[in-house]
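FORM 12-B: Structure-to-Sequence Request
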């Protein structure tokens, strides 16, 4: 079970890396678009995140449901926004910035929202 958790976590991180990379590569471009890296990255991150929670719930690992709820909500918003704009030739600068902000926020929640350990 631990090996499956690690593989899913690895794929989850790669998904968010692809999404972030797909966003950052357009930073200097005047016309922003939803590219394949963004689409495939958020799809991979979302699905592997769901599977990862399932594996954690099935095992005897403590799950922070509040953290999972926040990450799920942000990832779902990212998924909807990316998929809704996939076929558009360009997206507004504000949407691109919002996608970047949501992506970084989701990564920050994953890194900085640690479980509280009793002393």
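FORM 12-B RESPONSE
SEQUENCE OUT:
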């Amino acid at each position: 079970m631990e090996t499956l958790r690690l593989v899913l976590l690895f794929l989850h991180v790669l998904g968010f890396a692809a999404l972030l990379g797909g966003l950052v590569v357009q930073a200097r471009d005047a016309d922003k678009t939803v590219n394949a890296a963004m689409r495939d990255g958020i799809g991979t991150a979302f699905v592997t995140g769901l599977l990862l929670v399932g594996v954690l719930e099935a095992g005897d690992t403590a799950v922070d449901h509040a953290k999972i709820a926040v990450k799920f909500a942000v990832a779902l918003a990212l998924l909807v926004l990316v998929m809704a704009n996939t076929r558009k030739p360009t997206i507004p600068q504000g949407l691109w910035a919002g996608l970047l902000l949501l992506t970084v926020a989701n990564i920050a929640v994953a890194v900085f929202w640690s479980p509280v350990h009793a002393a």
